[in-house]
């Protein structure tokens, strides 16, 4: 759990006592490739700190998967709307390779936060970080053309290009795989 502790210390002040109080809310879970962390239609009751591997969030529309996010090492994966509201998730989260995650149980996390201000602050900071990442990509998709979205990913998130298949990346960028290939070919000097 050392990566999680480093992640926490990078976000907020967190004492050894708060770390001990957080422990009951944490468990380590491993997911095989193509195993769901969250299925569409289920209520999200966890935050997943990705310690190893990566996963993706997607919606299925008319039998076609539309990727909405990728979560790599040291990212928090969740469906924020379902987690916060208790409504059924409109998206799924699935492991794209073997994933080792530290799972925050919502009920136990909220209980610990009631008694420990640092845990409550950690929860707020995790939600802010998650929301900022969602806003970053929402802005990208609302303003830029596909070629500009790809350029942004290349500059700001090059690890995605190394880990994510071209088919999944095309779905994420909102273009056909062939279109993504054409854009990439035009950009090669």
CATH uppermost class: Mainly Beta
> Which structural class do you get from the secondary structure elements?
alpha+beta
Percentage of residues in helical conformation: 40-55%
Q: Treating each run of at least 4 consecutive H or I residues as one helix, how many helices?
A: 9
Query: What's the name of the CATH homologous superfamily?
Result: Jelly Rolls
Taken together, the total number of domains comes to: 1
Mean pLDDT: 91
Q: Reading side by side through the largest sheet, how are the strands ordered?
A: 1-8-3-6
Low-confidence stretches: none
Give the beta-strand count: 8
Gyration radius, rounded: 18 Å
Protein name: Transcriptional regulator, Crp/Fnr family
Pfam family, one: cNMP_binding
Short description:
This is Transcriptional regulator, Crp/Fnr family. Helices cover 51% and strands 23% of the residues.
Key attributes of the depicted protein:
single chain; four-stranded antiparallel sheet; RmlC-like_jellyroll; 9 helices; Jelly Rolls; cNMP-bd_dom; 189 residues; cNMP-bd_dom_sf; Transcriptional regulator, Crp/Fnr family; 23% strand; alpha+beta
Can you walk through the features of this model?
It comes from Chitinophaga pinensis (strain ATCC 43595 / DSM 2588 / LMG 13176 / NBRC 15968 / NCIMB 11800 / UQM 2034). This is Transcriptional regulator, Crp/Fnr family. With 189 residues, the protein is α+β, with helices and mostly antiparallel strands. The protein has one domain (2-143): Jelly Rolls, CATH 2.60.120.10. 51% of the residues lie in helices and 23% in strands. The chain is built from 9 helices and 8 strands. It has helices at residues 2-11, 16-22, 80-85, 106-115, 117-143, 146-156, 158-163, 166-173, 177-187, and strands spanning 26-31, 36-38, 46-52, 55-61, 64-71, 76-77, 92-95, 99-105. The protein has a 4-stranded antiparallel beta sheet. A 4-stranded antiparallel beta sheet has the order 2-7-4-5. A hairpin with a 2-residue loop joins β4 (55-61) and β5 (64-71).
């Amino acid at each position: 759990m050392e990566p999680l502790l480093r992640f926490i210390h990078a976000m907020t002040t967190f004492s050894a006592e708060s770390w001990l109080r957080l422990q009951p809310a944490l468990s380590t879970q491993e997911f095989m490739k193509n195993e769901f962390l969250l299925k569409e239609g289920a209520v999200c009751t966890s935050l997943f700190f990705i310690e190893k591997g990566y996963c993706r969030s997607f919606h299925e529309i008319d039998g076609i998967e539309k990727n909405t996010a990728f979560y790599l090492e040291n990212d928090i994966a969740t469906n924020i709307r379902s987690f916060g509201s208790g409504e059924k998730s409109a998206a799924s989260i699935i492991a794209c390779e073997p994933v080792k995650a530290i799972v925050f149980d919502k009920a136990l996390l909220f209980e610990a936060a009631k008694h420990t201000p640092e845990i409550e602050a950690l929860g707020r900071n995790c939600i802010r970080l998650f929301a900022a990442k969602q806003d970053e990509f929402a802005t990208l998709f609302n303003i830029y053309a596909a070629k500009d979205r790809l350029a942004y990913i290349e500059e700001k998130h090059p690890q995605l290009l190394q880990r994510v298949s071209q088919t999944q990346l095309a779905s994420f960028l909102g273009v056909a795989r062939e279109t993504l290939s054409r854009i990439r070919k035009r950009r090669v000097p």
